[in-house]
Each structure stands twice: as structure tokens, then as C-alpha cells.
Specification:
The structure holds two protein chains of two kinds. By secondary structure, chain A is mostly helical. Chain A has two domains: about 70 residues; about 80 residues, Arc Repressor Mutant, subunit A. Chain B is an all-alpha fold. Chain B has one domain. Chain B contains eleven helices and no strands. Chain B is elongated. Classes of the chains: A mainly alpha, B mainly alpha.
Chain lengths: ~160, ~240
């Protein structure tokens, strides 16, 4: 496994779950540490599935520990000072897609992020989420449909 | 909106700067330290050059003395505690310079490092004693077992007594206590070796075997205790 490549993907996933960049990075690192200390993925059979399972469990534990409501990490977006029109459009697109993703159900959002951002196979996603491959495909298709409608609505606006 | 465009947007979602990524990757992708490498590092740390110089000096000394009319058995028995002392200083180097906490943070546990160090010391000590025994046998005509006992018993007794002291007196100054112990055992060998030289068969040999076995056993107990204690933080023992 290439840690450098997977780090960013896992960080995105954790940020999607937690919406706190410091915490997301802590959880990302903790996930890798636990992954390397454990050899259980041999019995499960899939490295990536196991990695994201650890990440999900840690995110859930972290979420439960937090007593206050999570505040979306707005400064992360505000800090990006666009220097060009292209950058402005890029940020607008990013904000739009994130808002559209937030309107999906948690399961749909997770499946679609793991598929396209994490670049996991359907089988790995199924193992990680403990659902069937058919269920994964159904959620991804449903999510894509909703996202397309939402983005088209934003474009019209 | 095209699928490809949508997928590209999804991929860009939730992207944040990984501020601690490089540091983390540097830590976890560092060169793996295998056991061979660890052995090499430990030999260097303990002063393999000094050990080699010591071994060479001893060999030359014995070789020279073999051609002179001296009681070689006495020389070997008196010199053996010094060899034990020399080995123990290598072991204590880490404690003296407070390196435990750094070593504990490394990939290998302090227990593993201690076992490897003791193995190095043990093998080096055994090699020196065997060389001395062979030289003694060649010169004096003593049996190999008796020759080995002449070198091995004072070496093991010194090691046992010094480790007993080190484990109970946690101080950098305990090495001076070990020097006193080594000197004491050397002095005792002046008289003891005369008994050994007259030991040829029967009861005497059995007694010698018993003394050697007891020395080995007691030393092993202390060494195992030392290894066990190396798992605890040094400041917990103070």
C-alpha cells in the first residue's frame, strides 16, 4: 500500500465524516497506525476494506465522544483566497458538490465518496460497509441521480 | 451534467490540506531495522573495536606467556574477572548515558535490545574463555574441562556478583563496585588456582563440575532478571 497516495483519500473520508480538519487528520493517522499494527486484514482478505472499516469505527467513536454539536469547518473554505476566476469557480463547484453531498443519506454519501474519492472497488466498499455489492451499486446509482439533479438545479440558478 | 464531470466534482469534495502528512509518512516509511542491522548497531555502540583490541591483547599476552615459565593457569584465572568487567561496562553504557528512553521509542523493545546485547557479550565472553582454555591446555597439558573451569568459573562468578550488584544498586557509580568485585575474585584466584591445578580426577573433578554448573545457573538467573527488569522504565526502579 502506498501511504502517500492513500493518506489524502482517507483524510477526505474522515473529513466527510467529522467536518473537523484537525480531528480528521488525527483519525487518519490513528487509522494507519492501527492498520499497520494489526494483521487481521489477512483474514478479512481486503486491505482497503479493512483500512476504511478502522477509519469508520474511529470516526464513530470520535463522534460519540463529542458532546457539542459539530460545527462545519467553514474557515477551511474561507481561508482559500482565490487569485483567479478559475479558482473562484473551482471553490464554488466544491462548495456546491459538498452541499449536494450533505443532502444525501449518510449511507449514500459514504458509498459515493468511497467509490469516487477513495477509489475503492464495489467489493471493498461492500466489505467495509458490511452490505451486499448489489446494495452498494444501488446506493451509488441513487446518489449519483440525486447529485446530478442537485447540481443541475445549482447551475440553473 | 455528464457523469464524468459529476465524478470529477465528487472527487474534489472534502479536500483539505494535510498539514501533518509529510511528518507522519517520514516516520512510518523509515528504513526497516532488521535484526542483522540491529546487531551491527549494537556491536558498534558497545565498542566492538575495543572488544577486538581486548581479545587481541589477551591472545598476544597468552601467546607470549606460553613461552615464559610462569603459572599460566593463574594468569588466566586472574585475568578472567577483568574480561567479565569489560563485558559488563558495555552493557551498562546505555544506563550511564540515559539512552533507555530513546531506545524504548525505537522499533525494537528494550527487552529485545538487552537480549541481543547480552547475547553479544555472552558469545564474546565464551569465545575469549575458550581461547584462553585452549591456550592453557596447550601449554600446561591440563584437561580441557579443567582448563575451561580455570577461566570460566572466575568469569561467571564475577558476572553473577556484578549483576547482583547492578540490579540492586541503581546508580552510574555501581561500576566501581563491580571493579571491587572483579579485583576480589582475581585475588581469590591466586589461592584457588593452586587447588585447581592439583585437581585431576574423581571427587575433585565432580566438585569442579558442581561449582561450574552452579556458577552458570546463578548467572543465568541474574541475567534473566536483568532482562525482565529492562521492560520497566528506569525511573520506576529508582
Amino acid at each position: 500500500m502506498d501511504i502517500e497516495q492513500q493518506y489524502d483519500k482517507l483524510l477526505r473520508y474522515c473529513y466527510m465524516k467529522l467536518r473537523d480538519r484537525t480531528l480528521a487528520e488525527d483519525i487518519t493517522q490513528e487509522t494507519f497506525i492501527r492498520f499497520f499494527e494489526s494483521k487481521d486484514y489477512h483474514s478479512i482478505g481486503k486491505e482497503m476494506a479493512y483500512l476504511y472499516t478502522i477509519a469508520r469505527n474511529l470516526c464513530i467513536d470520535s463522534f460519540r465522544k463529542q458532546k457539542d454539536e459539530l460545527i462545519e469547518d467553514l474557515p477551511a473554505k474561507i481561508q482559500e483566497m482565490p487569485e483567479s476566476r478559475d479558482k473562484v469557480e473551482s471553490i464554488v463547484d466544491r462548495v456546491s458538490i459538498e452541499q449536494a453531498l450533505d443532502r444525501l443519506t449518510a449511507d449514500e454519501r459514504e458509498a459515493v465518496v468511497l467509490r469516487f474519492s477513495g477509489e475503492l472497488s464495489v467489493e471493498d466498499i461492500a466489505k467495509s460497509m458490511d452490505i451486499s455489492r448489489f446494495a452498494v451499486r444501488r446506493r451509488i446509482l441513487s446518489a449519483l441521480e440525486k447529485l446530478r439533479k442537485e447540481m443541475e438545479r445549482v447551475e440553473e440558478f | 451534467m455528464k457523469n464524468s464531470e459529476l465524478k470529477r466534482l465528487i472527487k474534489s469534495a472534502y479536500g483539505i490540506e494535510a498539514s501533518r502528512k509529510n511528518e507522519f509518512i517520514k516516520k512510518y516509511q523509515r528504513r526497516e531495522l532488521n535484526y542483522r542491522e540491529l546487531l551491527r548497531v549494537q556491536l558498534q555502540y558497545m565498542g566492538a573495536q575495543l572488544t577486538a583490541i581486548f581479545g587481541y591483547t589477551l591472545t598476544m599476552l597468552l601467546g607470549t606467556l606460553a613461552n615464559i615459565d610462569v603459572d599460566l593457569a593463574k594468569i588466566v584465572a586472574v585475568f578472567a574477572p577483568l574480561a567479565a568487567l569489560f563485558a559488563l561496562t558495555g552493557l551498562g553504557k546505555s544506563k550511564k548515558y540515559g539512552m533507555e528512553e530513546i531506545e524504548m521509542s525505537s522499533r525494537f523493545s528494550l527487552r529485545t535490545i538487552t537480549i541481543i546485547r547480552l547475547a553479544i557479550i555472552g558469545i564474546a565472553g565464551l569465545a575469549i574463555m575458550l581461547a584462553a582454555s585452549c591456550a592453557l591446555r596447550a601449554v600446561t597439558g591440563m584437561g580441557l574441562f579443567v582448563s575451561f573451569a580455570a577461566a570460566g568459573v572466575p568469569y561467571l562468578v564475577t558476572t553473577f556478583l556484578c549483576m547482583l550488584l547492578i540490579r540492586r544498586w541503581h546508580s552510574p557509580k555501581n561500576i566501581y563496585g563491580c571493579v571491587v568485585i572483579a579485583a576480589g575474585v582475581s585475588a581469590a584466584m591466586f589461592g584457588g588456582i593452586d587447588i585447581l591445578e592439583h585437581c585431576c580426577a574423581g571427587l575433585c573433578r565432580s566438585v569442579l563440575s558442581g561449582v561450574l554448573l552452579i556458577s552458570v545457573g546463578l548467572t543465568a538467573v541474574e541475567v534473566c532478571g536483568y532482562i525482565r527488569e529492562s521492560e520497566e522504565l528506569q525511573w520506576n526502579l529508582c
